[in-house]
Design goal:
188 residues; flat; six-stranded antiparallel sheet; five-stranded antiparallel sheet; mainly beta; 2% helix; 16 strands
């Protein structure tokens, strides 16, 4: 469906050069001389690449019908990950390739937000933070808390995270899934 530049809104989905994007920022500019235009910052749904474009107000764009749905991770079978739609209770299969780095942080029964285009999942967003248990880490030494330093540790999802030297196996931590960085220790 074609829309005019004046109908653009943040979060709206667009098809640009055959790729799916959503609008992250737009700025209407009315220069003192010449016609008005709109600067638009777009984010690619598949690659997360950012694209900046300038459009005159007379131009039209193709709107992509994007739908957001909450889904719950149920199980994995090979490279196929099964999710249950929270509203219709239908099973949806998502490939490991489409999930990308999110695979490293999937936990049993985790709720994720999916973006669908024409009833096909195009993006999966895991929560920004997860609570995970350290399953493998080098033992800490006495006095490790007095100096700054990090060591690799494996969490229960299988991902490797750098943690402070004083964190040991069996402890529960909070991890930022956007960066894969340790945030804090969590008391049970």
């Amino acid at each position: 469906m074609a829309i005019t530049i004046n109908e653009l809104e943040n979060g709206m989905g667009l098809v640009v050069d055959g790729q799916l994007y959503f609008v992250t920022e737009l700025n209407h500019v009315k220069p003192g001389k010449g016609s008005a235009f709109v600067r638009v910052r777009l984010k690619n749904l598949r690659t997360d690449a950012v694209l900046e474009r300038t459009y005159r107000t007379a131009e039209t764009l193709e709107e992509a019908d994007l739908e957001r749905r909450r889904m719950q991770f149920t199980y994995c079978l090979g490279d196929e990950y099964h999710f249950m739609d929270q509203s219709s209770f239908e099973d949806t299969v998502i490939s490991k390739q489409l999930l990308g780095d999110a695979v490293k942080y999937l936990q049993d029964n985790m709720e994720v937000e999916t973006i669908l285009h024409k009833n096909h999942v195009v993006k999966v967003d895991v929560p920004n933070f997860i609570i995970a248990t350290i399953v493998e880490a080098d033992p800490g030494l006495k006095g490790d808390s007095s100096r700054a330093g990090y060591k690799p540790a494996k969490i229960d999802t299988g991902a490797s995270v750098s943690v402070p030297l004083f964190i040991g196996q069996g402890e529960t931590i909070k991890v930022d899934t956007r960066t894969g960085v340790y945030v804090e220790r969590v008391k049970k």
